[in-house]
Amino acid sequence: MKTVNVGILGLGTVGGGTYKILDMNRELIEKRIGKSVKVVKVLERNLERAKSMGLTEDQVTQNPDDILKNPEIDIVVESLGGIEPSTSFMLTAMEHGKGVVTPNKAAVAAGFAKLQETAKANHVEFRFEASVGGGIPALTAIQEALAGNDFSEVMGILNGTTNYILTKMTDLGLDYNDVLKDAQEKGFAEADPTADVEGIDVANKLSILMALAFDHYVPPTEIPTVGISKITMDDIEAAREKNCKIKLIARAKRDGDQITYSVKPMEIDNAHPLAGVSNEFNAIYVTGNAVDELMFYGKGAGALPTGSAIVGDILAIAKTL
Ligand code: HSE
Description:
alpha/beta; binds L-homoserine; six-stranded parallel sheet; 40% helix; Rossmann fold
């Protein structure tokens, strides 16, 4: 049986989840794709953490080139987070003939064209399903199953951390800072949760969604963005009195050549399906001129749900090798 060799940059929440899925579903994966998928190297500073996950000492490196330029590696998973050095690492991996998979929305949104062009120029695949909506396979659906549609709207709840915070504040009256801490401990939040609570993470995801659905790239920094850090219990109570819940909503609408977009907290009527999206769950709505309205729903953050999308991308590439 052919073996497809994978290198993982960063064995944090998401990289660790990816490793775990490839390990726990090994036999099933081999049966499905007729190939064995093996993690041969990980870039990780914390050797003890790597060892506790079952990796041997020589599978762990501190030198990115041991993965990026390693002729034995077919696919690189970049799960370090942040724009740099992640983007440079992904470009180097592609230039060395490797397929690249990433959940890194900040890097994908910032370097959208450059990353796609480099993949094309080097005849390798670049996949980033996990970058929007965690385990929800919306990006692949938009690019494949829904590719025959002209889209007029994309909207949704795209951040697990903020949705978790708003849910616990609304349903249990818990304190903002306590719930944020809880979300960090559960592995939902970014290393610096400012990106979550100020809506920057959602702007990155909306930029990616617009690029795919509308074939129109808007830099995330140009998306008007308001986060949830100023939402108080009074705001939540005021919404409750109107039979609404406050949700952090990303929305982009196209009308001819005109596209409007924003990320902001909104009062959502309890009868609307988005009001029922709780905790770390995300929902993505798209409207296409053939399919009409479509909603994707699932876990938008966390090790295994996000790892699920990464492993899906790894296997999609592995099948083509
Ligand atoms: N911090 C992100 C979230 C992780 O809470 O949604 C998934 O992109």
